[in-house]
Amino acid sequence: MSKVEVFRALHHSRLPGDPLVLPGPWDAASARVFADAGFPALATPSAGVAASLGYEDGDTPADEMFAAVARIVRAVDVPVSADVEDGYGIAPAELVERLLATGAVGCNLEDSAGGVLKEPSRHADWLAEVRDVAGGELFVNARIDTFVRGVADPGAAIERAGLYVGAGADCVYPIGAPVGVLPLLRAGILGPVNFLGRPEGDSVRELGGLGATRVTFGPGLLRCSVDALRGVVAGLG
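^ that's the sequence the OP posted. Answer follows.
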């Protein structure tokens, strides 16, 4: 079985309370820590990688993001999915080519740019192009930005999810959705649902019981690492 086939299989036949947990490495060293801990796959967070490279979230040049993803992939033996934001304006064929060149088996692609939600039907068409070019070689996680762009109605996220799944997305990611609406999202969405967890928040078992297929943490684990480092540094003086 190829790595992308392994990654895709990890998303299916999940039992309630047993979501796929994908830690978010920001560099090769953190990737090795997560892989050595036994996690079967990883998913890079764009904000975490940006911070590791000295950029604000959303400001990382495409070349540097792809290079960072390649270093992370090279450091571990488990499948890695890459957050490549809104695709950096790169045409689908080139985007897929560059992603595959890093060794990544999947990608996050978000449906807003510059803080503005994209028109969902046009975005679905774009996702379909990415999926068609990639064939089965990339697991496409379609991020839905309604909640983080001020649209609190779960119905808006469910509507977009239907379009994206219809376009061939393997999973949808309503980032920023409140825990309380997770059962409603699960009931209205066909296919796997990615939920943004917090290290100090609800347990992954609880999130899985509410309907999360997989749980990622964005830059949350990087922030935990920085906080721990601050504690170490404070004791050096």
